[in-house]
């Protein structure tokens, strides 16, 4: 082993049964294993709290780790020790998970080296911590379903969610027009100004999307791609604006209502409905050149400040209850991303 682990013990969040996170999560302390052979030890720095993490703890998510489990699919860490056979990682390297259910909600952990991916140190710590899920989801949905050209329009609901804000910025970078639907709220103009500053072409409330003439008037071309994380009536209103032959990609269902589609949309407009799950894409493409290139491009965009992290709040690990209690109710409504600061345990 190249170096001794600098931590005597590990603090982890653990759940032994499914349920509401505030009820089933508790802090445990145990000794840290020294890395052997192809293993590395990581000090986790920051770990976002995503809706999927909450759903996993609740037992509602398709990807379930065996119980008892340490939650957390995303985060950024620093290598603090390496085993004797490790070639590609060194002490001091920054890493993110290279797969699902690694359990990032803990201060330290030992993994097989292939379970982690090295990232450039000049990517900001906050941006690096949330690199795996939301930016990749936005990137893949814009790349994989429609061969978009500069000037084409993308329409989405959940425009102020973490994914939605990355979609807006990538559309701006790649010269696509973006139309985002958001829910009405008292400070709606403040939100619209924020999303406009990110590069949005149009931001419409659910009421405004029903009445808008921006496509009929040719102010913007009819969208070829729609991104849906809400479902219910909201998604139906978005679907109505799709161009002939357009595609709607569903990657969430925050309204908990079904996605209903008019028969006419299928017969007369030849609309296609697809689904996207980042976990499944990663599993299929875990060691692909395409995935590597995606991380390089996203990392560069963050490093060059062309991509900004969504509004976020750092919560000390020792005060985790605030993050897990509010993550589902805020993400998608206020756009605030809760991030556990594992260094404050």
Automatic annotation (TrEMBL):
EC numbers for this chain: 1.3.1.104
Subcellular location: Mitochondrion
Keyword list, A-Z: Fatty acid biosynthesis, Fatty acid metabolism, Lipid biosynthesis, Lipid metabolism, Mitochondrion, NADP, Oxidoreductase, Transit peptide
Entry's Gene Ontology cellular component terms: mitochondrion
Keyword Iron among UniProt keywords: no
Residues of the Enoyl reductase (ER) domain: 20-340
Origin: domain of life: Eukaryota
GO biological processes: fatty acid biosynthetic process
Family under the similarity heading: Belongs to the zinc-containing alcohol dehydrogenase family. Quinone oxidoreductase subfamily.
Protein name: Enoyl-[acyl-carrier-protein] reductase, mitochondrial
Phylogenetic placement of the source organism: Eukaryota, Metazoa, Ecdysozoa, Arthropoda, Hexapoda
């Amino acid at each position: 082993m190249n170096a001794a682990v600098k931590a005597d013990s590990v603090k982890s969040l653990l759940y032994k049964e499914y349920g509401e996170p505030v009820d089933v999560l508790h802090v445990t302390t145990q000794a840290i294993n020294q890395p052997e052979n192809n293993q590395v030890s990581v000090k986790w720095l920051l770990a976002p709290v995503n809706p999927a993490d909450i759903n996993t703890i609740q037992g509602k998510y398709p990807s379930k780790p065996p119980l008892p489990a340490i939650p957390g699919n995303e985060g950024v860490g620093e290598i603090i020790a390496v085993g004797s056979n490790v070639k590609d990682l060194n002490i001091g390297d920054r890493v993110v998970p290279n797969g699902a259910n690694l359990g990032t909600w803990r201060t330290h952990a030992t993994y097989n080296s292939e379970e982690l991916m090295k990232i450039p140190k000049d990517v900001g710590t906050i941006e690096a911590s949330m690199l795996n899920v939301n930016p990749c989801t936005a990137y893949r949905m814009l790349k994989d379903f429609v061969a978009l050209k500069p000037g084409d329009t993308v329409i989405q609901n959940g425009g102020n969610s973490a994914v939605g804000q990355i979609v807006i910025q990538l559309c701006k970078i790649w010269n696509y027009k973006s139309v985002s639907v958001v829910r009405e709220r008292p400070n709606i103009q403040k939100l619209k100004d924020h999303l406009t500053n990110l590069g949005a072409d149009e931001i419409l409330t659910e009421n405004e999307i029903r009445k808008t003439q921006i496509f009929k008037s040719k102010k913007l071309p009819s969208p070829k791609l729609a991104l849906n994380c809400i479902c219910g009536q909201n998604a139906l209103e978005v679907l109505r604006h799709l161009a002939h032959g357009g595609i709607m990609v569903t990657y969430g269902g925050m309204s908990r209502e079904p996605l209903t589609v008019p028969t006419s949309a299928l017969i007369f407009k030849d609309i296609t409905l697809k689904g996207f799950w980042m976990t499944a894409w990663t599993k299929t493409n875990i060691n692909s050149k395409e995935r590597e290139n995606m991380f390089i491009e996203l990392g560069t965009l963050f490093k060059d400040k062309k991509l900004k992290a969504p509004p976020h709040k750092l919560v000390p690990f020792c005060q985790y209850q605030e993050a897990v209690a509010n993550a589902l109710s805020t993400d998608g409504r206020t756009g605030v991303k809760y991030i556990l600061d594992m260094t404050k345990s």
